[in-house]
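User: I'm writing a tutorial on reading structure tokens. Could you give me a worked example: one chain, its sequence, then its tokens, then a sentence or two explaining what the tokens reveal?
Assistant: Sure. Here is the example chain.
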Amino acid sequence: MYLEQRASDFVKLWLIFAFVYFPMLTAMPLTIDAEWTTTAPNHHYWITQGRWFAYVLTTFILPPHLVPYFTIALFGLLACAAYLLVLKSCSLPLDWRTLLTFPIFCGFPIWSFIAEFPSNIAGAGVSLLLCALAALAIKSRRAENGAPGWLVAAEIAALTMAIGTYQAFVVVYPTMIIALLLINPSFANVKDRTGLALQAALILIAATLLNYALQQLFYFGFGLLPGGYVAQFLRLDLFLDSPLWVLAKTAFQAANIYFGTPRVFGSFLIVGVVVVMGAIAGSRGSWVNLCLVGSLMSVPLGLAFASGGSGLPDRALLGVPVAIWTLSILALHDRVKAIRYVSIAAIALLTIQSVAVISQYQAVRNLVAEHDRSVASQIYQRIASVADLTQVTKVDFFGGLPAPKPVFRTGRTSSAAGSFFSWDNGNAGRIAAYMKLLGYENLQLLPEAERRGLVGRYKSMPSWPNAGSVVRDGDIVLVKLGEAIGYFP
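And here are its predicted structure tokens:
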């Protein structure tokens, strides 16, 4: 009977997930970065980004990440399992309240931002499950007043792998712990809360240090160096130079997210009502509750603070959905009827809005994908008119096309409206890899040194789609897409 009930609970959650993500489950256009993660000869790029366990997952465990339906569906299955574990950690049943709030936990639009990258979303589901397992384990140990060494080691290992898959999960785990402290009645007194919080902090520190050590081993073992992509977001120097300015910018970003402004999400979300109701409900009773609610809303923005208050992609703020879910649960269980009723209406409306904006983003992705496929076809035909594409042909792309104006607004740091022909102001390597991925063969991009030597040649050429924008110069085909020099690494 227990297994039957758990299976029934899982199916209910999966159906809700499918309702939220139906547009992304049924169509998956190629998105930015898919062109190189799919065509790369190996998955070493994960190691250079400091994501050693993402390399392990992609190389040995997960199937190819560009398979339609699979990556989002797998994320959904893992999110459902993680949610059941979080409910168990918080001593909550799967009732109408937890069913109503599940779309916030797994479908708040920040998840959609990371789902734009098929190579990331499946691993994010694994990390979410690992964080939930670690939170449940520490709750069980504290409740039973026991600390078996193997279980502590397992918690550290789970959290280490979660961080090693995607660094943003370093704030998801503490957000889950704060949720546990606010919701679970077993941890109502200050002593129990303090003990669990201290143990969780030590486990997080141990996992972070272990992750760093393992990452160094992967660098050494594969003869690789850290890439600059992730490092560019760690800007503690900005805080040291202007601490008040960084705090102000982080607070401004938090306000935009927790009040669902179009600046962040492209459309207004009623999340602010849920946050206010939950904050009132959660902070009532003691100064400890007030501090926990403040921490709940601050911890997910920790990485934004570390990046100097701005510049961090919103997809990295994965603790935010957990924090908003926690506040919604607190509001639905409040003793004041007005707070409960207002929260029910706001949460239901937020679910509808989340489904709407996810569909909105997907519509933009589909339209941009159609544009890019059409442009790729036209460029290939023009190249074929000046060269014999039955043979390997050297080609160079200069500049980029203006990005097609999206019919709907997308998220501030979303790549949903990103075109392969406009990203990076025109990236020849990205364009060539994208065309290869579509099946356009025998196009050999020139090395960077040779490309730089051709820059002057483009000054006399018109830009795409004018006649003369694709010409043959000796054994090289030159394609001028725009006037700007474009991207050179």
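What the tokens reveal: The beta strands are 393-398, 443-445, 470-473, 476-480. The mean pLDDT is 91.
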